[in-house]
Amino acid sequence: MSEINETDLKILKYPNPILKKVSEPVEVFDDELAKFVKDLFTAMRASDGVGLAAPQVGVLKKIAVVEYDEKKYVLINPKVIDQKGIADDEEGCLSFPGIYAHVQRPEWVKIETFDVHGEKQTYEASGFTARAFLHEMDHLSGKLFIDYLSNLKRNAIKKKVSKNTGGHF
Ligand code: NI
C-alpha cells in the first residue's frame, strides 16, 4: 500500500528572495501550527530531504523539521545553547537541487527548541544531525549554505543555478 504524500506546500528554489528573509518567532501553538509541521514533514519526504524550514515553503516563521536516522525533530523558535568541535562535510539543500558543497560547522550542538505543543525541548546532536539542525536554523535567519563558501565557489553555484532555471541575478 502506498503512502499518501500530498501537500500543497511548494519548495522555493534559490534565488527566490524569500529565502534571504529573517523569519518571525512562533507565538501561537495551535492546531494550525501542528498541521503545518505535519505538512512540512510530508513535503520534505516527498523531495527525499532530511530537513526543511518554513521559509523554504514561503512561510516566514521560525519552524523547521529534521528527520534523520529514523528520528524526527520539530524545531520551533530553536536556538543553539552550546557547541563543540569543527566538522567539514558535504551538504545540500532542497532549495538548490543537485548542488552540494563542503561546509564547516560545529561537530556537536545542544539546542533548545519548542515542540508543537509549546513545550520546551532540548536536543544534543553530533555529526550529520547536528549539521542538519544548524542548516535548518540558518534558513530561519535567511542564511543559506552557499553563504559559507568562497566568492569563487558561490559564483560558480550561482552560474550553475542560473543555467538550470534560466533565472536572473
Ligand atoms: Ni536547506
Could you characterize what this model shows?
- This protein has one domain: Peptide Deformylase.
- It is 26% helix and 28% strand.
- It is built from 3 helices and 7 strands, in the order H-E-E-E-E-E-E-E-H-H.
- It has helices at residues 31-46, 127-139, 151-165; strands at residues 51-53, 63-68, 71-84, 87-91, 101-105, 108-114, 120-126.
- A hairpin with a 5-residue loop joins strand 6 and strand 7 (120-126).
- It is globular.
- The structure holds nickel (II) ion.
- Nickel (II) ion binds next to helix 2.
Count of strand segments = 7
Q: Can you tell me the CATH architecture? A: Alpha-Beta Complex
Count of all domains: 1
Order of helices and strands: HEEEEEEEHH
CATH topology: Peptide Deformylase
The share of residues in helices is: 25-40%
Largest sheet report: 5 strands, antiparallel
How much of the polypeptide forms β-strand, as a percent range?
Answer: 25-35%
Distance between the termini: 44 Å
In short:
The chain is an alpha+beta fold. The chain is built from 3 helices and 7 strands; from the N terminus they run H-E-E-E-E-E-E-E-H-H.
Topology, element by element:
Blueprint: H1 31-46, E1 51-53, E2 63-68, E3 71-84, E4 87-91, E5 101-105, E6 108-114, E7 120-126, H2 127-139, H3 151-165
Antiparallel strand pairs: 1-2, 2-3, 3-6, 4-5, 6-7
The structure holds nickel (II) ion (NI).
